[in-house]
Structure formats: C-alpha cells, structure tokens
Write a structure and sequence with these properties.
CATH topology of the largest domain: TIM Barrel
Helix content: 40-55%
Number of domains: 2
Strand order of the largest sheet: 1-2-3-5-8-9-10-12
Number of strands: 12
CATH architecture of the largest domain: Alpha-Beta Barrel
CATH superfamily of the largest domain: Luciferase-like domain
Distance between the termini: 33 Å
Shape: globular
Structural class: alpha/beta
C-alpha cells in the first residue's frame, strides 16, 4: 500500500450543532461559502458522525469531509471500513477518516468497556481499516482486534488518520497512519517536539511523514478578549482531563488540571485578531511544517457577529492561497 498524503495549506472548520439535520445544513452552507473542508467530532447532539457525513456527501459536490475524531470503541474496524467505503463511493476523493480512543471515563461509561492499551487499539484499528480500504481485503489477528474481510472495491483515496496528544501517539501515527490530528495542542509544541517525533518515527520505518493536521481556536474580531472568552466557553473543560493536562505539562504549562485555561495557554492555541493578523499567523504555521489547520470558531457567548466574520475569513484565506 502506498502512503496517502493529504492536501496542503487547507484550513477546515469543525462543525457541530444541536441535531444531525442542523449539521448537514451547516456543511451545505459551508460549501456554498467556499469553505474547503469540514470536520465532525464524536458525541454531543450532532448524531453519528459517519451517518451525518454520508448525508452531507449526497448534498455537496466538492467540500472535503472528515472525522476528528471517531471513537474506535463504537464500531468494529471492518464495519468502519464498510461505512467509509460507502461514503467514498458517494463522494470520491473527499472523505478523510480520523480515529481516536476518546476520553477514558466517557468511553467506559458509554460503551461499558474497559479502557486499556489505547495506542495498541488505535494502531491495530488503523491497520485493519487502512488495509481493507486501500487494498480491498484484510486478514489480521492482533492482541485487540481480529479481522478477515473483503470489500467490493478499493477506496485508496481515503486517508486514515489518528488523534495525537503525547509523544507515543505521534510515534505511533508516524508508523501506521496517513495523518496526525492534534486537538487543543499548543502550536509551538505541535510544530516542534511533536512534529519531530512524527518525522523520525516515519523515517525509521521508511514511510513518508504523515500529514500534521493542527487544531486551532479561531476568532476574527477587533476585541482580543472575545477570543479568550470564546475558548473558555467552547473548550473549557479540556485542560482538566488527564490526557490533556499531561500534554499541556509537556508543552510547558504545568498544573492545568487545577488552573484550567490561563491566558498564556489560550494564547498558545488561539488565532485571534483582524483578518490580516490571522493570515500572518496561518502563514507562519504552514511554514512551520503543518499540512492542514482545523479550526474551532470561538466567540463571546453574548456576541455572534464574529462567527460569520471568521467563516468568511477562512473562505477568503483559502481562495487566496489557491490563486
């Protein structure tokens, strides 16, 4: 199987909402606005991400559709490959699969499984899904999963990516995945130590370095404080989760589990300011080795005007890059 490389210098938007219909309609609207890519997370009121993206695939023509991420515990990897193959047949060349373990307490409560060896689970999961999609068949027996199956066709245009937080997850992604997806990760850490690990681990097994998809909070506004309030409102609980607090500590922000979001932590993940200022920040990140940027649009809970402004900016920035 050849390594699957993603497009570069794309800015995609994380879409969420109170219902599946709302999310599908939002994806259709995003395409009409010129947004090049959208991403869906797991959980919340949006419904099953693969089902929602299948519906969106049928109503759109060119926007890229991805999961960031789909929790692996919700379905067997063969089932995932079958569903992804279906979406890919509806939207050839437009679907991207990102998988991850999710948060241990949520996984155990939701699925009734014991959360253990997450990286082994993810590695085997990616191997099965990627092999089945890219070659059409798989025969595998690992410590976590067993699979013996065939697909009626090959979907080798679908990159299979992994969520990444700490060094071991970047090392694993470098060895088996087509991309590494960060989430609320300080940008200097992601483009520094983490990217180096991704490069070294892939080179060690003679693979092309997987694409780094960098998550960022985005707020186009004349009021910098609005962006900070938006992060605390939209992404407020992440620093208190053990996996994330460990990642923040490695990036130089100790004790985040108790402190929550400090201004310095927010500055490390937030792109905020005027269109010109945000463009400069995006240019810098792409020059630092990032392949794509995945943004969560944040805003002051009492003000919604910056949402439309931020979406317009993403569209305008990507059009300028393509021109």
């Amino acid at each position: 199987m050849r390594d699957r490389k993603l497009s570069t210098n794309i800015v995609g938007v994380a879409i969420s909402g109170p219902s599946s219909k709302y999310v599908v309609d939002s994806i259709v609207e995003a395409e009409q606005e010129g947004i090049p890519a959208v991403w869906l997370t797991s959980g919340g009121g949006s419904g099953d991400s693969l089902s929602v993206l299948a519906a969106a695939a049928a109503r759109t023509d060119k926007i890229l559709l991805g999961t960031s991420i789909m929790r692996i515990w919700s379905r067997h990897p063969v089932t995932t490959a079958e569903q992804v193959s279906t979406i890919s047949s509806i939207a050839p060349g437009r679907f991207r699969l990102g998988v991850g373990s999710g948060i241990n307490s949520t996984v155990e409560r939701t699925f009734g499984v014991k959360f253990h060896s997450p990286l082994t689970h993810i590695s085997e999961y990616i191997h099965i899904v990627r092999t089945l999609l890219h070659s059409g068949s798989v025969s595998f027996k690992g410590s976590c999963y067993t699979a013996c199956s065939e697909l009626p066709g090959i979907s080798d245009d679908v990159p299979v990516m992994s969520s990444t937080l700490g060094p071991k997850s970047y090392e694993m992604a470098g060895k088996v995945a087509d991309g590494a997806i960060s989430w609320v990760t300080p940008h200097s850490y992601a483009t520094g130590e983490a990217l180096t690990i991704l490069q070294e681990s892939s080179h060690a097994v003679q693979r092309t370095t997987p694409s780094l998809i960098l998550h960022a909070a985005l707020c186009i506004t004349d009021d910098i404080c609005e962006g900070k309030r938006g992060v605390r409102s939209r992404l407020g609980y992440f620093p208190t989760i053990p996996f994330y607090s460990d990642m923040f500590a490695r990036a130089g922000f100790s004790n985040s589990a108790k402190s929550g979001w400090t201004d310095e932590m927010i500055d490390s993940i937030l792109i905020c300011g005027t269109e010109h200022q945000a463009s400069q920040e995006l240019d810098f990140l792409f020059a630092s080795g990032v392949s794509e940027i995945l943004v969560t649009v944040v805003f002051d809970p009492g003000k919604h005007a910056s949402i439309a402004r931020s979406m317009r900016f993403v569209s305008d920035y990507c059009k300028e890059v393509d021109s």
